[in-house]
Amino acid sequence: MAHLKVEIVTPDGLSYENPEAQLVVVRTIDGELGILPNHAPIIVPLSIDEVRIKNDRDSKEQDIVAINGGIMEVRDNILTIIADSAEKPSDIDVSRAERAKQRAEEIIEEAKKEHDIDQLRRAEVALSRAINRINVSRK
Q1: Predicted confidence (pLDDT) per residue in 62-87, tens digit
Q2: Which of 53, 68, 94, 111 has the largest count of CB atoms under 10 Å?
Q3: Residue 43 above 90 pLDDT?
Q4: Domain 4-87 falls in which CATH fold?
Q5: Does the keyword S-adenosyl-L-methionine feature in the UniProt annotation (predicted)?
Q6: Does 57 have pLDDT greater than 90?
């Protein structure tokens, strides 16, 4: 039976590796995408979300990694994700993520008052990242 070798790489190096995955689910900018062994070659941009990796498609057991967007390439049963950051639930500092969420919400309110579109967009991305980290930490 074919497997997927999964690698998640950040500027700090290899963040996650699994040589025996049977299913990987990611969120692209166009929606959710499931990758099985022998998938056609593909390169897609990823959204801020979790990556779910299963060694057995029928099992509920899975590895979850929070990523802050990035790019995924699948070729020859090797799935590579290049992201700015990637964290497993046990690596997430929840109190830090909560503080980042609160800061982003405050900046969003201020940017709306000042009609600062650039600051608003940056704060919305920061808020998405914080919420993603908080959600993944609970899994």
Answers
A1: 999 999 989 999 999 999 999 999 99
A2: 53
A3: yes
A4: ATP Synthase; domain 1 (2.60.15)
A5: no
A6: no
